[in-house]
């Protein structure tokens, strides 16, 4: 994929994360599948319950 297009997508993701955080959501941006998996595992390590509401993205990981 074109580097310029990747940059645009990343900026959109960062703006979405900022908007979610502004509304009291916990949100992070992960650049890669591997980073996302590590983040999920790290966050889940101390969780008492884990759930995801039909997220196709999570299933693809």
Description:
With 61 residues, the protein is mostly helical. It has one domain (3-60). Helices cover 61% and strands 0% of the residues. It has 3 helices and no strands. It has helices spanning 3-22, 33-44, 56-60. The mean pLDDT is 89.
**Helix-strand pattern, N to C?**
HHH
Largest sheet descriptor? none
- The radius of gyration over CA amounts to 13 Å
- Total strand segments: 0
Total domain count: 1
Note poorly predicted spans: none
Distance between the termini: 20 Å
Strand content: under 5%
Q: Work out the helicity level.
A: 55-70%
What class would the helix/strand composition place it in? mainly alpha
Query: What is the residue-mean pLDDT, rounded to a whole number?
Result: 89
What coarse outline follows from CA principal-axis ratios?
A: globular
The number of helical segments is 3
Give the SSE layout.
Blueprint (H helix, E strand, L loop, with lengths): L2 H20 L10 H12 L11 H5 L1
Put the structure in a nutshell.
The chain is mainly alpha-helical and 61 residues long. It has helices at 3-22, 33-44, 56-60.
List key phrases describing it:
globular, 0% strand, mainly alpha
